[in-house]
Amino acid sequence: MAGRRPGSRRRTLVLAVIAAVVVAFLAGGGVTWWVLGEEDDDVRDHVEVSGGELVADDSDDAYCDDDDIYSYNDCDTDPDETYEFSYRITNKGDGPANYSVVVNAFDEEGDFVGQTYVGTTHLAAGETDSDEGEFNEYSDFEGKSELSDIASVKVAHAERIALAN
């Protein structure tokens, strides 16, 4: 064959084989990810939040002594307010894990008011941890929102960190 370089057919064949291997590897990786990848299990399903109410506490009354020798007023005239809610975290995984959860607060219209964080550590598989969470005067609120604007709470994000032991 005049005009053809020796080995060009072989080079084309080698390039075709390499391209086929790369395509097969990428396709195989995608199938493997699809089969072994993340389950449809949303970690937020491991967490329940319920209840929620604005609580005012005049806890300083028992310690209020404005008749002492100090010049400052040690009586807090404003009640301590918190918005308290209950939460339950159930480890639905196969082994022990830590959980970090973001809880959002909303007003009557469903607008975002603020967020807080709850969690638990070293929760064994199948076990449940229940506790109280709260928003307080030191929580960050959106715009001019305040504690009294909170009408409901909802789990916004949950993260499960599996432990080796």
Automatic annotation (TrEMBL):
TM regions (residue ranges): 12-36
Keywords carried by this UniProt record: Membrane, Transmembrane, Transmembrane helix
Protein name: DUF4352 domain-containing protein
